[in-house]
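Practice problem: predict the structure.
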Amino acid sequence: MTSIVLVVDDEDMTRKLLRLMLERDGFTILEAEDGQQALEVIAESKPDIVILDVMMPNMDGFTTCQELRSQPETATLPIILLSARSQTEAVQAGLESGADRYMTKPISKPELVQTITELLSGVPVVENP
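Answer:
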């Protein structure tokens, strides 16, 4: 059975790029343009993992992540925050919001696929120093 990945980003080009990268590795991709739409897609489609942009209109990635962690149905849903912000404070805020992993753009396909695979298999992901 193929894993379902929800890609949440307000930039159409980023969603398309991630779709192309991940579909080639056998993942089924769902898309949302912001956090509010992501919550709706998650409620309807029950993805296996979420890749969530940080800076989005309506509901940012941190808020979306916190909302997902506060609900019993989504409290353990694997979440990868993806952002152009690489400052220590941003990474810390992302992890404190409940993300399982914080990755920076531009993203490497092998690193992303490996992280998704590890999170879906329950293997703890070790942060880079």
